[in-house]
Amino acid sequence: MDTRTGAERRTSCATARSLAALLLLAGLASAAQAQSGETQRLRSRALAATCATCHGTDGRAVEGEALIRLAGMPADYTLTQLLAFRTGQRPATIMHQITKGYSQEQLEEVAKYFAAQK
Ligand code: HEC
């Protein structure tokens, strides 16, 4: 038999409700976080898609084609090259023009994206 008073029962019920609300909030927060990670990944991928014509999908150049592979290149290396193209420090036929169209943040983002590809 439940020997608790009505007030005690109401208190434990309120505690259970707060706990449920907390769990719900925690669940929503982690879902939002997962979604923003996915949004970020898609954004980076869209940026990388602008390089696909000449460097292959996700930077994976096709064997035997005259494409330069970017997938798996260290982000530092890629970013250094991109910045060198932009300043004209590294001579190029096209990359000096392309890199001028992107912000520093976008070049960092795309360099990281390609580094994460296998
Ligand atoms: C129209 C074709 C074309 C597009 C589009 C293009 N690239 Fe290039 N990329 C080249 C060529 C050609 C080179 C060799 C350098 C040169 O002559 O410009 C090169 C070289 C590079 C290199 C140096 C690779 C190495 O081994 O040192 C990097 C890094 C690079 N590109 C990144 C990118 C990124 C990032 C994008 C997208 C934002 C991009 N490229 C878009 C044609 C392209």
From the alpha carbons, calculate the radius of gyration and give it in angstroms. 26 Å
Major pleated sheet: none
CATH architecture: Orthogonal Bundle
| Approximate helicity band | 55-70%
Could you say what the CATH topology is called? Cytochrome Bc1 Complex, Chain D, domain 2
Q: Tell me what portion of residues adopts beta-strand conformation.
A: under 5%
Number of strand elements: 0
- Helices and strands, in order, run as HHHHH
Outline the fold blueprint.
Elements: H1 6-49, H2 52-55, H3 75-87, H4 95-99, H5 104-115
Helix pairs in contact: 1-5, 3-5
Heme C is lined by residues 50-51, 53-55, 68, 70, 78, 81-82, 92-95, 98, 110.
Would you give an account of this structure?
There is one protein chain. The chain has 118 residues and is mainly alpha-helical. It has one domain: Cytochrome c-like domain (Cytochrome Bc1 Complex, Chain D, domain 2, Orthogonal Bundle). The protein is rod-shaped and about 85 Å long. It has 5 helices and no strands. 66% of the residues lie in helices and 0% in strands. The mean pLDDT is 87. The chain binds heme C. Heme C (HEC) binds next to α2, α3 and α4.
